[in-house]
Structure formats: C-alpha cells, structure tokens
C-alpha cells in the first residue's frame, strides 16, 4: 500500500546506473576520471587531453592529440548565423540563456544532428567543445560594448579562451590556473545536469538536446550557478583592496555568523555527495592562492578564510568547488554572470561522455511517483 512505499526525495542515495566515466568517492574525498586521480590530471594535462580521456576512456597518444587539436582549432569560430542569433538576444538575459540557446542552434546547424552513432556523437561533442568558448567570450564582450576577438589557431584551448575573452595574451600562470579550473569542472558522475543529459538521451533524443537541457539544469544556484553566487557574497561583503587580510577575515566571519543565524543558505558550501569536503577544492584553492599572489589581492584570502572558518565552526559544512573557483574567475577579469558559462564550457566534455555511455547501454529513464493528491472523485453530472 502507498504508506509503505519509500520515496527518496531528490533521489538522494539512489544508484541509478553504472558509469565508467568517473568515480566520486565521498569516503576518501577522491575523484577519478576514467581511473586517473583528477589532481594528477590537473597537474600534468591540458584540457584537450582530459576531454579526449573522458570521451574515449584513454589518454591520447601524441598523434591522437595532434589530430584532435587541429580539428578543435578549426571549429572554434562562430558562424555568422549564430552570431546574429546571439546578437538578437537582449543583454538583460542571463549569459546562461545565451549558452543554452547557442547549444540548441549548434544542433540545428549540425548536419549530423540526428545521427547518434558513436562516431557522429563524438564529432558533435568535439565541435560543441570547440565552439562554446567563443560563445561565452563573444557574449561577455558584447555586453561590455567591446568588439569580438577572433580565435587564434596558434594557442591551446585555455590560452585561446582567455585571448578571446580579453583580447590580450594571458600570463602563463593565469593560463595554467584556468586550465586547472576547466579540468576540475569537466566531470562529476551523476550530478543534476549530467543526469538531465542522460534522461534526455534515454528517450533516444539527440546529443544537442541533451546538452541544451543540461545547461538549463546547471544554471540553478544549487548547482553550477553557485560559482556566481559565491562572488556575489564576496561583493556583498565588500572587497577592499586596502584592507588587511586579518581585518577582511574578521569581517567575513561576522557576516557569516549573522547569515547563518538568519538561516541563510550559503552558496559554495555543502554537497549532496561529499560530506567531509569536496575532492577538488584543495587543487582549486591552490590555483586561487597563485592567482591572489599574481594579482596582489591578499584581502580576498582574508574574506575566503573568514567565511570558510565561520561555516566550519558553526555547522561543519565544507566548501565545494564553486567556492574557490568564483574568486579565481573574478581575479582573472571575468564578469560574474559569465562564471557559470565557464562551467558549461568545461562540463560539455563530461555531459557528452555520459550521453555516449547512455546511448551505448540505453534504458529509458522513467521512475515512479507516489500519488498524494485527492482520492478518486467525480465530475458533477458525469
Ligand atoms: C555543484 O552533484 C554534484 O556533483 C554537483 C557538482 C558538480 O560538479 O556537478 O559538484 C557542482 O553543484 C556544487 C554545489 C553547488 N551548490 C551550492 O554551493 C549551493 C549551496 N549548497 C547547498 O544548498 C547544498 O549543500 C547542496 C544543494 C549542494 C546539497 O544539498 P543537500 O544534499 O540536498 O543537503 P541539504 O540542503 O538538505 O542540507 C543538509 C543540511 C541542512 O541542515 P539541516 O536542515 O539538516 O539542519 O545541511 C545544511 C542544510 O540547511 N546545509 C547548509 C548548506 N548546505 C547544507 N546550510 C547553509 N548553507 C549551505 N550551503
């Protein structure tokens, strides 16, 4: 009977399928992409190598990497049609709406849109991965009233991303930190957006539809939108270039204590799966530390530590990846609403790897619900 049915709200703790793409281990705070610790990948690989690893299951050989790199660079530029569609969107809309629209348009433009063979899906995934940085940068620049910057075929993925965003070659230290962030954001098992992509794929819909839906799921502040919300917290607190780290820390602690007393949900903290800390945070925090040194903004570290310590003391809740990623992107000069689109650009790799895995061993995703509406009743006179 209905009262005996166990309902798992939010599918918490439910194992919905197998995956060979990544393994999240909350007990050991570890994360493996296709068996490789994410920390090792972040320390020694390019985003292009990690993308190929996620899609194919293996790190590429030099020839495979060279072949992919050439294709990726050839597909970076936006078509005039896509630019016109982006230009038609109001600059008052969220940049995630632009990403979502662009993913949909790229599907409509792709002659292989309806071909879900492994080969076609891989090609489509690679083209989306190649084009999304240009979408993100084109949109940020148009909002700033700046001319778009064309991609450069002589630069790697991360260096070119920063080039298209800011129109100047980024310092190698900045490129490295950005590359680390992209790798850490690339994949994370059955998170809400990836599961969304798998649900769409399970109906035998197409890859671009799955990615478009996933972007919608990522937009929310309980998921990818948190990296923007973190920076809004920092801005609400006030970032004061002349403040000592100790003063900033004290101010942040006081702010957090007050926010928690008011039962506020603090973005960038907590995680559905990790309860003792997010496996990616130490690597991203180290990149943030390097950027704080590079840009000479130690007061940010004070704010960061103050919020983290106060949250730890009050609730023992740890930061997630969005917490160090937000201020890192801010230091690099991205506009806050562009932060979640940066997450999109990275996660396209994981989403599409899961789409291909879902296609290969598909079963329609269709859970049950427990009805709790009115008992059967009848239309008067029927
Ligand atoms: C991502 O799933 C993934 O893998 C996602 C992701 C990926 O790579 O794909 O890792 C990316 O989405 C990171 C998460 C980004 N979201 C945020 O930073 C938003 C803030 N965090 C939370 O709202 C929350 O921690 C969630 C949504 C991330 C997880 O929530 P759960 O598992 O549903 O847990 P919950 O909200 O039921 O919280 C349990 C308890 C509650 O307290 P009690 O009611 O039991 O007293 O912990 C408290 C919560 O109030 N809590 C928080 C909190 N997070 C949890 N309290 C204040 N601030 C928080 N951030």
TrEMBL record:
Catalytic activity: oxaloacetate + acetyl-CoA + H2O = citrate + CoA + H(+)
Pathway(s) the chain acts in: Carbohydrate metabolism; tricarboxylic acid cycle
Record has Lipid biosynthesis as a keyword: no
Active-site residues annotated for this sequence: 271, 322
Molecular function per GO: citrate synthase activity
GO cellular component: cytosol
Pfam families recorded: Citrate_synt
InterPro entries from the UniProt entry: 2-MeCitrate/Citrate_synth_II, Citrate_synth-like_lrg_a-sub, Citrate_synth-like_sm_a-sub, Citrate_synthase, Citrate_synthase_AS, Citrate_synthase_bac-typ, Citrate_synthase_sf
GO biological-process terms attached to the record: carbohydrate metabolic process; tricarboxylic acid cycle
Record-linked Gene3D superfamilies: Citrate Synthase, domain 1 (1.10.580.10), Cytochrome P450-Terp, domain 2 (1.10.230.10)
UniProt keyword terms in alphabetical order: Acyltransferase, Transferase, Tricarboxylic acid cycle
Keyword Acyltransferase in record: yes
SUPFAM superfamilies: Citrate synthase (SSF48256)
NCBIfam families per record: cit_synth_II, PRK14033.1
Family according to the record: Belongs to the citrate synthase family.
The name this protein goes by in its record: Citrate synthase
Organism from which the protein derives: Kocuria flava
């Amino acid at each position: 009977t209905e009262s005996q049915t166990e309902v798992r709200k939010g599918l918490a703790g439910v194992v919905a399928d197998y995956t060979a793409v990544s393994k999240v281990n909350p007990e050991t705070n570890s994360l493996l992409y296709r068996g490789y610790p994410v920390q090792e990948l972040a320390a020694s690989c390019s985003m292009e190598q990690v993308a190929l690893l996620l899609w194919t299951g293996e790190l590429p050989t030099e020839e495979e990497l060279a072949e992919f790199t050439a294709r990726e660079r050839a597909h970076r530029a936006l078509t005039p049609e896509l630019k016109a569609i982006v230009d038609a969107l109001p600059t008052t809309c969220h940049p995630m709406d632009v990403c979502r629209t662009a993913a949909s348009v790229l599907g409509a433009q792709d002659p292989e849109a309806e071909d879900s063979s492994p080969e076609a899906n891989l090609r489509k995934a690679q083209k989306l991965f190649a084009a999304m940085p240009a979408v993100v940068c084109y949109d940020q620049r148009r909002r700033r009233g700046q001319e778009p910057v064309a991609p450069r075929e002589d630069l790697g993925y991360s260096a070119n991303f920063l080039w298209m965003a800011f129109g100047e070659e980024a310092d190698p230290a900045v490129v490295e930190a950005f590359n680390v962030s992209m790798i850490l954001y690339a994949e994370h098992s059955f998170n809400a957006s990836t599961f969304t992509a798998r649900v769409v794929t399970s109906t035998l819909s197409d890859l671009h539809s799955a990615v478009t839906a996933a972007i919608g799921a990522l937009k929310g502040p309980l998921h990818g939108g948190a990296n923007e919300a973190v920076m809004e917290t920092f801005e609400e607190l006030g970032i004061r270039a002349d403040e000592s780290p100790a003063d900033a820390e004290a101010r942040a602690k006081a702010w957090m204590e007050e926010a928690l007393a008011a039962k506020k949900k603090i973005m960038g903290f907590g995680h559905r799966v990790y309860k003792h800390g997010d496996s990616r945070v130490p690597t991203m925090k180290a990149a943030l530390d390097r950027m704080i040194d590079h840009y000479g903004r130690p007061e940010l570290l004070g704010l960061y530590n103050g919020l983290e310590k106060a949250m730890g003391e009050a609730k023992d809740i740890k930061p997630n990846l969005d917490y160090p990623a937000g201020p890192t992107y801010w230091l690099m000069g991205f506009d806050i609403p562009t932060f979640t689109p940066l997450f999109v650009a990275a996660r396209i790799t994981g989403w599409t790897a899961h789409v291909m895995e879902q296609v290969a061993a598909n079963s329609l995703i269709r859970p049950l619900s427990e009805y709790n509406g009115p008992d059967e009743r009848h239309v008067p006179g029927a």
